[in-house]
Amino acid sequence: MAGGGSFVSFPALLFMRVPAVVANTTNTVALWPGLAASTVAYLKRLNAPLRVLLPLVVTSLAGGWAGALLLLRTPQHTFLHLVPWLLLGGTLLFAFGNKMRAVAGRAAIIDDLREISWQSILVTSFVELLVSVYGGYFGAGIGFMTLGMLATLGMRDILAMGAIRTLLAAAINAAAVLTFIWAGAVLWPQCTVMIVGSLAGGWFGAHYAQKADPRKMRYIVIGVGLVMSAYFFIATR
After folding, report:
1. What is the four-CA torsion angle of 72, 171, 224, 88, rounded to 10 degrees?
2. Per residue of the chain (237 residues), what is the pLDDT tens digit?
3. What counts of helices (H) and strands (E) characterise the chain?
4. Phi first, then psi: what are they for 107, rounded to 5°?
5. What are phi and psi of 112, to 5 degrees?
6. What are the extents of the domains in the chain?
7. CA dist., res. 90 & res. 12, Å (int)
8. Which of 21, 5, 4 is nearest to 185 (CA)?
């Protein structure tokens, strides 16, 4: 309903005394099926030309893989001390992402993505690479980063932007998911339960999001993110 599921599911694993890195890898794998389902639902809105999509997808896969490898090589105690900062950063992106996108949206409007120059595509692909590395490493807030990047390109069709954002997020997490599974870094009993919850929650969320007050839901997610950040700042001291 609000797009902040990781602010609940990731801390839940930590509260179950799952090591921080494994909690993050398991959470990423568990939430990916719901993201993939969203990508399929958005396909009819995905009308960007291949010359724009292909570099972005390639950099998303490469960055997601690099971020996942970086996570696997991060010591558990080091990542645990990074958790409150990552949660806080993701919460702030969630809270102010729309404002960032609105500011970026003041750029020149482009109605047809075929008009974008190769220079703009290269710069955007580099930014997407950086976003993807972060996404493979942790991931909270990458949707707002991507929307801001697309708004900077001049896009204004929010549904078309949402389709590209979802596709790129799915690509980032697909690379990370395959890396985590290959490395044997997933707790499958917990992950299986979470996958069921993710799919069910995604369906009910899409159904009831049309009735709920989105502003209230955002406030709830932001509140949860801030509380979790504060808790882990204290707990990891």
Report:
1. 60
2. 556 678 788 889 999 999 999 999 999 999 898 888 777 777 777 777 888 889 999 999 999 999 999 999 999 889 888 888 988 887 787 777 656 556 555 555 555 566 677 887 898 899 899 999 999 998 777 777 787 777 777 676 666 777 888 889 889 999 999 999 999 999 999 999 999 988 887 777 666 655 667 677 778 778 888 888 898 888 877
3. 9, 0
4. -70, 175
5. -120, 115
6. 6-235
7. 16
8. 21
| Max CA pair span of the chain | 51
Could you tell me which of 119, 125, 123 has the C-alpha nearest to residue 58?
125
The whole-angstrom separation of Cα 120 and Cα 116 is 6
